[in-house]
Amino acid sequence: MKRALITGVTGQDGAYLAKYLLGKGYKIYGTFRRISTPNFWRLQSLGVYSKINLIPADLLDVGSMIEAIRVSDPDEIYNMAASSYVGSSFEQAVGNAEITGLAVTKFLEAIKALKVDAKFYQASSSEMYGNNSYTLQDEQTPFHPSSPYAVAKLYAHRITNVYRRSYNMFAVAGILFNHESPLRGIEFVSRKISNGVAEIAFGLKKELVLGNLNAKRDWGHAAEYMEAVHLMLQEDKPEDYVISTGEAHSVLEFVKLAFDIVGLDWKKHVKTNKRFLRPFDVEYLCGNNKKARRKLGWKPKIKFEQLVKLMLNEDLRRWKMFIEGKTFPWDAPLYPDESKLITRSSEENNSSKIKKKSRS
Is 284 a catalytic residue? Predict the structure, then answer.
């Protein structure tokens, strides 16, 4: 029986990967950070919580990562842990750099020091490309990171490559484009839309406030992308791969489709607010997955329209259950109202409103 160690097992990707590997007969060990309110709802909703061996650990604490490797004695290691929300990386740039970037070096050093021959996967991101002039981004496209998150991911991506070449480690990086699902956190725009539209459909709220509606992304389903991640570690030679659908759609397209599904006019409910704009936004990302198709035999099955329907229908189902008083693993009721969150962008926006009023 193969053994896998998954960091960030409580996140969207970690949970789907754990379920997929359990189906392959793996024994799964997953790390999680001890916090005052444990967050296992994704594992519970997938029905795999009781099947995973949980290890308390922190990427910033190399001692705990060494212990996790020793306890799990893994054949494969998947580093899915990171401070993954791009917007918050501007607010917490130093912490993001340490968790998403530098911690990966500590992890690789731990593997090297223990002389573990486990195959290592690093979760890289399409955000590393930033604003570029390429219609499609592939493994050879130059990187131009446009956020602290993207810079940290690029560091982790490069250091993984360095350890592969320098120490003959089987270490690969998957450059995953936007991959969404009903398990996505509400701070991400895809789930913010699906959850918000569901609330509006049930009359629980009247409006959905967003930032840049024109940004285009390559949207795929997270569960399918985890299949590609696993395939990367089954290859004889360690290589990096772009995982994407090859199609780009705007945030506005996502919004329109979601509101169409529930029979509502999006224009009557959607507002934009500068507080949700990033200081430096990426306007367009679309991946070329030819290498993954050719070498891994992987290709996406769920495309944009199906993804939006799938996410919205699940949030509609959840809100219906919530209204009926049923208990189930879920995140939405615990998520804070974003209007209550104070950030520099929100304060600047509020200040400009005050100035406008004083002029009038």
Answer: no
Topology of domain 3-181+220-243 in CATH is: Rossmann fold (3.40.50)
**Edge-to-edge strands, sheet with 119-125:** 53-56, 27-32, 3-7, 76-79, 119-125, 171-176, 241-243
- Strands 216-217, 249-250: pairing is antiparallel
Full-prediction pTM beyond 0.90?
yes
257 Cβ contact list (under 8 Å, min separation 6): 305, 308, 309
Encoded tokens for 87? 């917007």
Active-site hit among 127, 180, 199, 314: 127
- 125 tagged catalytic: yes
Structure token pair of residue 46: 């997938």
Catalytic, out of 124, 125, 146, 345: 125
Per-residue pLDDT for 314 more than 50? yes
Average pLDDT, the chain: 91
pLDDT at 352: 46
The tokens of 331 are what? 């995140």
Query: What is the pLDDT averaged over residues 263-288?
Result: 88
Instruction: Sketch the domain layout of the chain as residue ranges.
Output: 3-181+220-243
Residue 28 CB partners (closer than 8 Å, separation 6+): 3, 4, 6, 9, 18, 21, 22, 48, 51, 52, 53
Tokens 């969207």 belong to: 12
CA atoms within 13 A on the CB side of 166: 9
Report d(CA 170, CA 336) in Å as an integer.
41
CA 182 to chain centre: 12
What count of residues does the chain have? 360
Residues 6+ positions from 207 with CB-CB distance below 8 Å: 200, 269, 270, 271
Do the Cβ atoms of 197 and 330 come closer than 8 Å? no
In angstroms, rounded to a whole number, what is the distance separating the alpha carbons of residues 86 and 282? Answer: 11
Q: Where are the alpha helices (DSSP H) in 176-234?
A: 189-201, 222-232
Among candidate residues 16, 149, 155, 284, the one labeled active-site is 149
Task: Report the alpha-carbon distance of residue 81 to residue 5 in Å, rounded.
Answer: 12
